[in-house]
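ENTRY TYPE: paired fold submission
RECORD: A
CONTENT: sequence, then structure tokens
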Amino acid sequence: MMRQSDCRPLIRALLIDVSGTLHVGSKPTPDAVEALGRLRQVGIPFKLCSNTSKESTQSLLRRLNSQGFDIRSNEQGDSKELWTSIGAVKHVLHDLHCSRPFPLLSQSAREELSDVYHARDDDHGATGFDAVVVGLAPSILTYDNLNTAFRVLVGEDNNKKGKKNRIPLIATNKAKYIQSDSNDRLSLGPGAFVASLEYAAGVQAHVVGKPSKSFFDMVIDSFGGEINNKKGMIAIIGDDVENDLGEGALELGLWRVLVRTGKYRQ
């Protein structure tokens, strides 16, 4: 006989991973578009949670809609459905009063931070920066750029001026690996590069995306009254047992669902 604890609980809302769960590269995963449509039809609230940091939130939104998902625009305030780690970076920079981060980010991702980051002609040097931000940007994560980030973090410029303020290292996420968009092979995620800076500079990164509790709290809060009076649990669905279903998901007691698509390996 199946025990009660073995049964799926009543679900009042869903948090759904994007890359590897809803789509791989330019193609939706099987039945993903239809599944979101069904959730809308039966009235189950959901939010999409993406650690993708290769592009801005708006760029990802356009890409998903081009695949048939019909995701609501992020200009629609609390009704928005897509939440990203690069979007969370903007909030953290604002909260930390950082106005000139050194961004190890793609050009598209930098556009997300346009109101807090403005490129200057001397951005190649380790001077005047008040934070380092790391995302997935293969062409940007070079030795020279990582070395500049290291120098910013250890405060070489500030120490010369007699200042020793700790420079924050902000990571969109610390994924060890990702599913390649172009094939079925795995590729290095930003975690290895974040770890190298942590080790060399003797700092601990502030991770703003999944699986941090703060990210999940932010997304869950956005449901507002839509789920406050509903019974049941909030479920999180993803293809990465650590970066989708770990840490914050465990702390918050979310019902965790691992799918066998994307980066999932037995």
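RECORD: B
CONTENT: sequence, then structure tokens
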Amino acid sequence: MSETVAIRIENLSKNFGRRKSKRIQAVKNLNLEVHAGQVYGFLGPNGAGKSTTIRMLLDLILPTEGNAYIFGQHVRREHQILRRVGALVEGATFYNFLNGRRNLEVLARTANHYDPARIEMLLGQVGLSHRANQRVKGYSTGMKQRLGLAAALLSDPELLILDEPTNGLDPAGMHEMREFIRDQAALHGKTVFLSSHLLGEIEQVCDRVAIIHLGEIVREGAVEDLLADKTYLRVEATPLDKAADVLREFWTVTVNGQSMTVVAARSDIPHVVRRLVDQQIDIFHVAAERQTLEEYFLSVVQEAVPHA
């Protein structure tokens, strides 16, 4: 396998429960490929299988079936490959009685890559230099997330796997985290695999995304390509209820107060307008907008039908 592929997941599945009647299939035949240098978003509702997939990728739990590779090496058979990975999974746990700097020193010494200068640099990059001497017991959730990101970068890994890295951060902190993550790829050549429920953040930072629902990937692709798939048409017309009924036969329509939203391909826009005019409906305003990643995500999840 080419080392230009940072992550490859092949037919990965995970079942929980020994008894067949109570067995839960958390991940179902997952296939995924992430190229080196990308910032890749892994999206899904709670319980979709995101954390289970990440834990299998990091060899923290065994898959029921399938294989996971990092830089072409099997994560179980060639476990040393995980030395090239830094991870922040479901928050960060530290020694509460030690300060932030000391926690990083312990982690670095344990992993045999102690570098005092790098620790100080990372504390500055994640915005904790002024709190480095404070005990972690007094850290907020956001501060622990920042410290966790610094810990993930201690070994200067080639691949970063981040699970909800913006948890507990205020809007300014989220902006800083977004810029920091983007810089890891753009300036430092790292690959970032990012799981988050904050879709506005994902849209601004990721090159590609995969949407997982009920353990299966239901959409995958470049962010720009996915969002160009459908156009939102904002329409003000009278009578609005009649206009919505006319269009619902062909498109998804949502009435929002004094206007409605029509989900349609850009090439369908003239047909939308023509159908309204043919039914003697007065049109006062029409505006085409590209959907946001959040809107796309919600539409995909709502359309997904679980397999029998």
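NOTES ON RECORD B: The first helix runs from residue 50 to 57. Residues 91 and 267 are 45 Å apart (CA to CA).
STATUS: closed
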